[in-house]
UniProtKB/TrEMBL annotation:
UniProt entry keywords in alphabetical sequence: Acetylation, Chaperone, Cytoplasm, Nucleus, Phosphoprotein, Repeat, TPR repeat
Region (Disordered): 66-100, 248-269
Record protein name field: Small glutamine-rich tetratricopeptide repeat-containing protein alpha
Protein location: Cytoplasm; Nucleus
Oligomer status and interactors: Homodimer. Homooligomer. Interacts with DNAJC5 and DNAJC5B. Interacts (via TPR repeats) with HSP90AA1. Interacts (via Gln-rich region) with SLC2A1. Interacts with HSP90AB1. Interacts (via TPR repeats) with HSPA8/Hsc70; the interaction is direct. Interacts with BAG6 (via ubiquitin-like domain); interaction prevents interaction between BAG6 and RNF126. Forms a multiprotein complex, at least composed of DNAJB12, DNAJB14, HSPA8/Hsc70 and SGTA; interaction with DNAJB14 and HSPA8/Hsc70 is direct.
Length: 287
Protein backbone atom coordinates (compact mmCIF):
# COMPACT_ATOMS: atom_id res chain seq x y z
CA UNK A 1 0.00 0.00 0.00
CA UNK A 2 1.31 3.45 -0.89
CA UNK A 3 2.71 5.18 2.20
CA UNK A 4 1.76 8.58 0.81
CA UNK A 5 -1.86 7.54 0.55
CA UNK A 6 -1.75 6.14 4.08
CA UNK A 7 -0.41 9.44 5.37
CA UNK A 8 -2.99 11.43 3.40
CA UNK A 9 -5.76 9.21 4.73
CA UNK A 10 -4.52 9.66 8.31
CA UNK A 11 -4.53 13.45 7.89
CA UNK A 12 -8.01 13.43 6.34
CA UNK A 13 -9.28 11.22 9.16
CA UNK A 14 -7.80 13.61 11.72
CA UNK A 15 -9.39 16.64 10.03
CA UNK A 16 -12.77 14.90 9.95
CA UNK A 17 -12.47 14.21 13.68
CA UNK A 18 -11.71 17.88 14.26
CA UNK A 19 -14.82 18.86 12.30
CA UNK A 20 -16.98 16.64 14.47
CA UNK A 21 -15.42 17.21 17.88
CA UNK A 22 -13.01 20.13 17.60
CA UNK A 23 -15.40 22.90 18.69
CA UNK A 24 -14.22 25.08 15.81
CA UNK A 25 -15.73 28.29 14.47
CA UNK A 26 -17.73 28.19 11.26
CA UNK A 27 -14.85 29.84 9.36
CA UNK A 28 -12.37 27.29 10.69
CA UNK A 29 -14.72 24.43 9.78
CA UNK A 30 -15.05 25.76 6.25
CA UNK A 31 -11.27 25.96 5.95
CA UNK A 32 -10.91 22.35 7.09
CA UNK A 33 -13.53 21.20 4.59
CA UNK A 34 -11.58 22.87 1.79
CA UNK A 35 -8.37 21.26 3.03
CA UNK A 36 -10.03 17.82 3.08
CA UNK A 37 -11.28 18.25 -0.49
CA UNK A 38 -7.83 19.28 -1.67
CA UNK A 39 -6.16 16.27 -0.03
CA UNK A 40 -8.78 13.88 -1.40
CA UNK A 41 -8.30 15.24 -4.92
CA UNK A 42 -4.51 15.33 -4.77
CA UNK A 43 -4.04 11.80 -3.42
CA UNK A 44 -7.16 10.05 -4.76
CA UNK A 45 -8.36 8.95 -1.31
CA UNK A 46 -11.47 9.56 0.80
CA UNK A 47 -12.39 8.97 4.42
CA UNK A 48 -14.30 5.88 3.28
CA UNK A 49 -11.05 4.15 2.20
CA UNK A 50 -10.77 2.23 5.46
CA UNK A 51 -8.22 -0.17 3.95
CA UNK A 52 -5.71 2.67 4.20
CA UNK A 53 -6.17 3.04 7.95
CA UNK A 54 -3.14 2.66 10.20
CA UNK A 55 -3.16 0.76 13.51
CA UNK A 56 -2.99 4.10 15.34
CA UNK A 57 -4.55 7.49 14.69
CA UNK A 58 -2.42 10.49 13.77
CA UNK A 59 -2.60 12.03 17.29
CA UNK A 60 -1.54 8.68 18.76
CA UNK A 61 1.41 8.48 16.36
CA UNK A 62 2.38 12.05 17.23
CA UNK A 63 2.13 11.38 20.95
CA UNK A 64 4.29 8.27 20.60
CA UNK A 65 6.91 10.23 18.69
CA UNK A 66 6.82 13.12 21.16
CA UNK A 67 7.23 10.86 24.19
CA UNK A 68 9.81 8.60 22.56
CA UNK A 69 7.65 5.50 22.73
CA UNK A 70 8.53 2.64 20.43
CA UNK A 71 6.05 2.34 17.56
CA UNK A 72 4.92 -1.02 16.22
CA UNK A 73 6.90 -2.32 13.24
CA UNK A 74 3.85 -2.36 10.97
CA UNK A 75 3.29 1.34 11.74
CA UNK A 76 6.85 2.37 11.01
CA UNK A 77 6.92 0.50 7.72
CA UNK A 78 3.46 -0.60 6.61
CA UNK A 79 3.63 -3.91 4.80
CA UNK A 80 2.82 -3.87 1.12
CA UNK A 81 1.17 -6.81 -0.51
CA UNK A 82 2.49 -6.96 -4.05
CA UNK A 83 0.34 -8.72 -6.61
CA UNK A 84 1.12 -12.34 -7.31
CA UNK A 85 2.85 -13.31 -10.52
CA UNK A 86 -0.46 -14.55 -11.87
CA UNK A 87 -2.23 -11.28 -11.02
CA UNK A 88 0.59 -9.23 -12.53
CA UNK A 89 0.47 -11.23 -15.74
CA UNK A 90 -3.30 -10.95 -15.94
CA UNK A 91 -3.14 -7.22 -15.28
CA UNK A 92 -0.69 -6.83 -18.17
CA UNK A 93 -2.98 -8.86 -20.42
CA UNK A 94 -5.92 -6.63 -19.49
CA UNK A 95 -3.83 -3.51 -20.14
CA UNK A 96 -2.89 -4.87 -23.59
CA UNK A 97 -6.55 -5.55 -24.33
CA UNK A 98 -7.36 -2.02 -23.25
CA UNK A 99 -4.72 -0.72 -25.66
CA UNK A 100 -6.29 -2.71 -28.48
CA UNK A 101 -9.69 -1.23 -27.69
CA UNK A 102 -8.17 2.26 -27.82
CA UNK A 103 -6.85 1.54 -31.32
CA UNK A 104 -10.36 0.73 -32.59
CA UNK A 105 -11.80 3.72 -30.66
CA UNK A 106 -13.86 1.54 -28.32
CA UNK A 107 -13.07 3.81 -25.40
CA UNK A 108 -15.69 2.54 -22.95
CA UNK A 109 -14.32 -0.99 -23.29
CA UNK A 110 -10.80 0.37 -22.82
CA UNK A 111 -11.86 2.02 -19.56
CA UNK A 112 -13.27 -1.32 -18.44
CA UNK A 113 -10.09 -3.28 -19.18
CA UNK A 114 -7.80 -0.70 -17.61
CA UNK A 115 -10.02 -0.66 -14.54
CA UNK A 116 -9.75 -4.43 -14.21
CA UNK A 117 -5.97 -4.17 -14.50
CA UNK A 118 -5.96 -1.55 -11.73
CA UNK A 119 -7.97 -3.86 -9.48
CA UNK A 120 -5.27 -6.51 -9.81
CA UNK A 121 -2.32 -4.12 -9.50
CA UNK A 122 -3.26 -0.67 -8.14
CA UNK A 123 0.40 0.34 -7.79
CA UNK A 124 1.00 0.54 -11.54
CA UNK A 125 1.03 4.14 -12.77
CA UNK A 126 0.71 3.10 -16.43
CA UNK A 127 -2.74 1.61 -15.89
CA UNK A 128 -4.08 4.84 -14.38
CA UNK A 129 -2.45 6.95 -17.09
CA UNK A 130 -3.90 4.79 -19.86
CA UNK A 131 -7.35 4.95 -18.34
CA UNK A 132 -6.96 8.73 -18.16
CA UNK A 133 -6.42 8.76 -21.93
CA UNK A 134 -9.60 6.72 -22.42
CA UNK A 135 -11.55 9.01 -20.12
CA UNK A 136 -10.38 12.03 -22.13
CA UNK A 137 -11.57 10.41 -25.36
CA UNK A 138 -14.99 9.98 -23.72
CA UNK A 139 -15.06 13.61 -22.60
CA UNK A 140 -14.69 12.66 -18.94
CA UNK A 141 -11.89 15.13 -18.30
CA UNK A 142 -12.47 15.23 -14.54
CA UNK A 143 -11.95 11.46 -14.42
CA UNK A 144 -8.82 11.86 -16.52
CA UNK A 145 -7.44 14.47 -14.13
CA UNK A 146 -8.06 12.20 -11.15
CA UNK A 147 -6.35 9.22 -12.80
CA UNK A 148 -3.37 11.37 -13.80
CA UNK A 149 -3.07 12.54 -10.20
CA UNK A 150 -3.01 8.92 -9.07
CA UNK A 151 -0.39 8.02 -11.66
CA UNK A 152 1.81 10.94 -10.58
CA UNK A 153 1.38 9.96 -6.93
CA UNK A 154 2.62 6.46 -7.75
CA UNK A 155 5.44 7.61 -10.03
CA UNK A 156 6.32 11.33 -9.76
CA UNK A 157 8.83 10.96 -12.63
CA UNK A 158 6.29 9.61 -15.13
CA UNK A 159 6.29 12.27 -17.86
CA UNK A 160 3.34 10.85 -19.78
CA UNK A 161 1.07 11.37 -16.75
CA UNK A 162 1.96 15.09 -16.69
CA UNK A 163 1.40 15.37 -20.43
CA UNK A 164 -2.02 13.75 -20.26
CA UNK A 165 -2.89 15.87 -17.26
CA UNK A 166 -2.11 18.91 -19.40
CA UNK A 167 -4.46 17.68 -22.14
CA UNK A 168 -7.31 17.09 -19.68
CA UNK A 169 -6.83 20.49 -18.03
CA UNK A 170 -6.74 22.23 -21.42
CA UNK A 171 -10.05 20.58 -22.29
CA UNK A 172 -11.45 22.00 -19.05
CA UNK A 173 -10.17 25.46 -20.12
CA UNK A 174 -7.73 25.46 -17.22
CA UNK A 175 -4.89 26.71 -19.37
CA UNK A 176 -2.72 28.12 -16.57
CA UNK A 177 -2.59 24.71 -14.88
CA UNK A 178 -2.17 22.95 -18.23
CA UNK A 179 0.90 25.04 -19.06
CA UNK A 180 2.47 24.11 -15.73
CA UNK A 181 1.94 20.38 -16.32
CA UNK A 182 3.25 20.53 -19.89
CA UNK A 183 6.38 22.28 -18.62
CA UNK A 184 6.86 19.57 -16.01
CA UNK A 185 6.41 16.90 -18.69
CA UNK A 186 9.12 18.60 -20.76
CA UNK A 187 11.45 18.75 -17.76
CA UNK A 188 11.20 14.97 -17.57
CA UNK A 189 11.21 14.37 -21.34
CA UNK A 190 12.79 17.47 -22.97
CA UNK A 191 12.88 16.03 -26.50
CA UNK A 192 9.18 15.15 -26.70
CA UNK A 193 7.76 17.10 -29.64
CA UNK A 194 4.15 16.43 -28.64
CA UNK A 195 4.66 18.11 -25.27
CA UNK A 196 6.35 21.08 -26.97
CA UNK A 197 3.45 21.46 -29.42
CA UNK A 198 0.78 21.12 -26.74
CA UNK A 199 2.58 23.65 -24.55
CA UNK A 200 2.58 26.20 -27.38
CA UNK A 201 -1.14 25.63 -27.97
CA UNK A 202 -1.95 26.03 -24.26
CA UNK A 203 0.12 29.21 -24.04
CA UNK A 204 -1.65 30.58 -27.13
CA UNK A 205 -5.06 29.84 -25.65
CA UNK A 206 -3.95 31.49 -22.43
CA UNK A 207 -3.04 34.66 -24.32
CA UNK A 208 -6.33 34.56 -26.24
CA UNK A 209 -8.41 34.23 -23.09
CA UNK A 210 -10.74 37.21 -22.42
CA UNK A 211 -9.16 40.03 -20.46
CA UNK A 212 -9.93 39.86 -16.72
CA UNK A 213 -10.73 43.57 -16.97
CA UNK A 214 -13.25 42.86 -19.68
CA UNK A 215 -16.13 44.09 -17.58
CA UNK A 216 -19.74 42.96 -17.77
CA UNK A 217 -20.48 39.29 -18.38
CA UNK A 218 -18.18 37.68 -20.90
CA UNK A 219 -17.59 40.86 -22.94
CA UNK A 220 -14.06 42.19 -23.25
CA UNK A 221 -14.84 45.90 -22.91
CA UNK A 222 -11.18 46.91 -23.13
CA UNK A 223 -10.88 45.03 -26.40
CA UNK A 224 -14.02 46.60 -27.82
CA UNK A 225 -12.91 50.11 -26.94
CA UNK A 226 -9.61 49.54 -28.71
CA UNK A 227 -11.32 48.24 -31.85
CA UNK A 228 -11.47 51.07 -34.46
CA UNK A 229 -14.39 49.47 -36.29
CA UNK A 230 -16.45 49.22 -33.15
CA UNK A 231 -15.62 52.81 -32.13
CA UNK A 232 -16.64 54.14 -35.55
CA UNK A 233 -19.92 52.22 -35.50
CA UNK A 234 -20.66 53.28 -31.93
CA UNK A 235 -19.86 56.91 -32.71
CA UNK A 236 -22.28 56.98 -35.67
CA UNK A 237 -25.00 55.24 -33.71
CA UNK A 238 -24.70 57.38 -30.62
CA UNK A 239 -24.73 60.65 -32.57
CA UNK A 240 -28.27 59.78 -33.66
CA UNK A 241 -30.57 62.19 -31.70
CA UNK A 242 -33.17 59.46 -31.14
CA UNK A 243 -30.57 57.14 -29.64
CA UNK A 244 -29.27 60.02 -27.52
CA UNK A 245 -32.75 60.63 -26.14
CA UNK A 246 -33.37 56.94 -25.49
CA UNK A 247 -30.06 56.40 -23.71
CA UNK A 248 -30.30 59.56 -21.62
CA UNK A 249 -33.63 58.34 -20.30
CA UNK A 250 -32.04 55.09 -19.15
CA UNK A 251 -29.34 56.77 -17.10
CA UNK A 252 -30.44 58.06 -13.73
CA UNK A 253 -29.80 61.52 -12.34
CA UNK A 254 -30.62 63.34 -15.57
CA UNK A 255 -26.96 63.24 -16.66
CA UNK A 256 -26.38 62.15 -20.21
CA UNK A 257 -23.10 60.20 -20.32
CA UNK A 258 -23.00 60.34 -24.08
CA UNK A 259 -21.95 63.94 -24.32
CA UNK A 260 -23.57 66.63 -26.44
CA UNK A 261 -25.40 65.62 -29.65
CA UNK A 262 -23.16 66.06 -32.64
CA UNK A 263 -19.93 65.28 -30.76
CA UNK A 264 -18.03 62.02 -30.80
CA UNK A 265 -18.22 60.04 -27.56
CA UNK A 266 -15.00 59.29 -25.74
CA UNK A 267 -13.89 55.84 -24.59
CA UNK A 268 -14.88 56.73 -21.04
CA UNK A 269 -18.35 57.68 -22.29
CA UNK A 270 -18.72 54.34 -24.05
CA UNK A 271 -17.40 52.39 -21.10
CA UNK A 272 -19.84 54.12 -18.78
CA UNK A 273 -22.72 53.31 -21.12
CA UNK A 274 -21.78 49.65 -21.58
CA UNK A 275 -21.34 49.14 -17.85
CA UNK A 276 -24.58 50.94 -16.99
CA UNK A 277 -26.90 49.28 -19.50
CA UNK A 278 -27.23 45.81 -17.87
CA UNK A 279 -28.22 47.19 -14.46
CA UNK A 280 -30.62 49.68 -16.00
CA UNK A 281 -32.25 47.12 -18.23
CA UNK A 282 -32.54 44.76 -15.27
CA UNK A 283 -34.17 47.38 -13.06
CA UNK A 284 -36.68 48.27 -15.76
CA UNK A 285 -37.55 44.62 -16.30
CA UNK A 286 -38.19 44.11 -12.59
CA UNK A 287 -40.30 47.27 -12.16
Amino acid sequence: MDNKKRLAYAIIQFLHDQLRHGGLSSDAQESLEVAIQCLETAFGVTVEDSDLALPQTLPEIFEAAATGKEMPQDLRSPARTPPSEEDSAEAERLKTEGNEQMKVENFEAAVHFYGKAIELNPANAVYFCNRAAAYSKLGNYAGAVQDCERAICIDPAYSKAYGRMGLALSSLNKHVEAVAYYKKALELDPDNETYKSNLKIAELKLREAPSPTGGVGSFDIAGLLNNPGFMSMASNLMNNPQIQQLMSGMISGGNNPLGTPGTSPSQNDLASLIQALPSRCSSRTQS
